[in-house]
Amino acid sequence: NAGVTQTPKFQVLKTGQSMTLQCAQDMNHNSMYWYRQDPGMGLRLIYYSASEGTTDKGEVPNGYNVSRLNKREFSLRLESAAPSQTSVYFCASTPGQGNYQPQHFGDGTRLSIL
Amino acid sequence: KNQVEQSPQSLIILEGKNCTLQCNYTVSPFSNLRWYKQDTGRGPVSLTIMTFSENTKSNGRYTATLDADTKQSSLHITASQLSDSASYICVVTTGTASKLTFGTGTRLQVTL
Predict the structure, then answer these.
(1) Which among A4, A45, A106 has the least Cβ separation from residue B98?
(2) Does residue B95 register a pLDDT over 80?
(3) What is the pLDDT of residue A101?
């Protein structure tokens, strides 16, 4: 059982380039999330999708867009990458929006912007 | 502002020893508190989830405690193993599954 799969695992971009990070889950979960993890800081929510067809901003949405392609897939797009977006990006999913549900995380995409 | 503070930032212990990690939070309203384990290069994995009415919850050699009055939690690891080397992250939920405040983690290294 793969759980949450993120691609690619590593990527280096130049400032101004665009890129889409992919995430897919095979647990039939309704809700999906994108976080970024930076040194010395806790994970911060970028965007989330409570259910198929809906997306909402999190704590740090500027510079990003998302697409909930279907129930399984939730992508994160950087339209014009900036060095401040160098980070490790994690996708997560939960069965729904109930507050007692553990989040299942992928293994991350390590993104460097030069 | 909601905050979750963890201590120590890092810890080194000998294999077989016990250790306790601390978490203090100023989050309102409080829904539940979670501990996650994050191995190097991997995503976080849930260890425990506790509501305000649960004082203790165990998962194998991991035991989490919660004092909702003082807004403190601890994670106790018994008889540590090399595989326990990881970062341990305290997370407090304020509402729905999208309302999480993450601590910065305690990095634990277990050595021979």
Answers:
(1) A45
(2) no
(3) 84
Q: For A47-82, how does the pLDDT look when each residue is reduced to its tens digit (9 = 90+)?
A: 999 999 999 999 999 999 999 989 999 999 999 999
Tell me: cis bond preceding B29? Omega within 30 of 0 counts: yes
Q: Which of A4, A90, A99 sits opposite B96 (nearest CB)?
A: A99
Question: Which pLDDT belongs to residue B38?
Answer: 98
Is residue B12 within 8 angstroms of chain A, CB to CB?
no
- Picking from B101, B81, B84, the residue whose alpha carbon sits closest to that of residue B24 is B101
Half-sphere exposure of B77 (CA within 13 A, CB side): 28
Residues B58 and B74 sit within 8 Å (Cβ to Cβ): no
- Looking only at Cα atoms, what is the longest distance across chain A? 40
**Containing H/E element for B10?**
strand B10-14
